[in-house]
Amino acid sequence: MGNKKRRRLDQKLSLHQRLLGGVQNSFGSPLANEARLSSNRVNGMSDLEAFINVLKCGFGTGCLAMPHAFLYSGWLVGLIGTFALSSFMLYAMHILLHHINNLGIQHKMPMISYRKAVELAIMKGPRKFHFLSKPFGYLVDVLLCAYHFGVDCVYVVFIAKSLKHLGDMYLWFWDERLYMALIASPLILTFLIRDLKSLVPFAIISNILLLTGYGVILKYLFRDLPEFEPLHAIQPLRNFPIFFGTVLFSIESLGVILSLSRSMRKPENLMGTCGILNQGMIVVISFYAIFGFIGYWRYGQNTANSILQNLPQEEFLSQLVTGMFALAIFFSYALQGYVTVSIIWRNYLEPELEDTYSRAVEFLLRIALVIASVLVAIQYPDFGLLLSFVGSFCLAQLGLILPGIVDICLRYEQDYGPGRIFLLRSLLFICMGLAGGVAGTVVSLRTLYARYPVVRKKV
User: Fold this and answer.
1) DSSP state of 152
2) Residue 354 and residue 211 in contact, taking contact as beta carbons nearer than 8 Å
3) pLDDT band at residue 255, thresholds of 50, 70 and 90?
4) CA gap 411, 415 in Å, rounded
5) Are 37 and 45 within 8 A, CB to CB?
6) Model pTM?
7) E strand or H helix at 92, and its extent?
8) Where is the chain membrane-spanning (predicted)?
9) Percent helix, strand and coil across the chain, each rounded to 5?
């Protein structure tokens, strides 16, 4: 076995690189994951930079689907549900971060990944479950890979639908699936960029386009609001799982927060009642709730999967916004996919390969992931349902179930508190994640299969 050349970000991160940690609402953009490699607190993020990173979690594709989520829940349930579910997820995030910090201190490890934290936690739980330590560690990797791969599938659908919208007006009437096939080649070209620092300009452009685009959308939403009475306050319960998955996809940003806790100059300022995390997430959650509510109020029962589809088609400004979002998401594709490649390549493939073949295999892996995401998008070209499925299946486990398991295991040798209140709290996390995750996954898959069956029935 030849010597392995591990690629690491050895240089000091500049200000604009540190501010890119929250490029998307996700379990950690690759830039955020790399930022944690700098353990030098002197060169770490300031409180303001960390606050900006938390805020950036609120500007992604998930926000565009929030008005449609309110259509499924009703405006009253949507408002209450967004704040309640998001606060619940934030609470679970606090508990997980607390345990990860304690594990780092106990094991004298300055940086502990989510996978390692789960493995260590299970080893501190009941002895008869110790054999599950490694399987649960692998599960974390699988879920992280599935999540970021799912985000890329959502991106392909979003870009293709945006291009079709513009193409139908100015060029030709093509099926959206043809656009998905056409963008595969340029996506592969960006995905073959191995140096993370080379992706920094893409992230900067993406952020500028997203912020500008949201400003224009808000202008449209607040213009000539209709009567409020016809809106449904509560929708049937069977529609709630779609709302659940969409909110999880939009709000959950644990990876970014984990990275911030490792790269801040004063990490103790992140947590606490008035810490950076709570301050930023209050703004983010409020923005999502207001955006979803106003979007549903503006377009009512006609609210589309993406609010962009509701903008005036004939106006040049709305067309420009559609193009800006398509370009922004295109530039974000490689950033999201970097996480999937990093986990698969560095943890599983690279250690097993000789240096002679490693470069070729890595390129094949990158190409295969792009092609796979395009094929999934072609089969299931529904932005809202794909987004809800990814949130329900992956984030319910990563954001609720696994934090609950970690908390139970780490408190096993201690005390669960008066009346076993901490045990009940963790069981509530697990039950809520199971109920919402299973329901959201089943409803999303069932609806996807009904609309886009793999085997079509003969008429």
Assistant:
1) H
2) no
3) low
4) 6
5) no
6) 0.83
7) helix 75-106
8) 50-70, 76-97, 136-158, 178-193, 200-222, 242-260, 281-299, 319-343, 363-380, 386-410, 422-449
9) 75, 0, 25
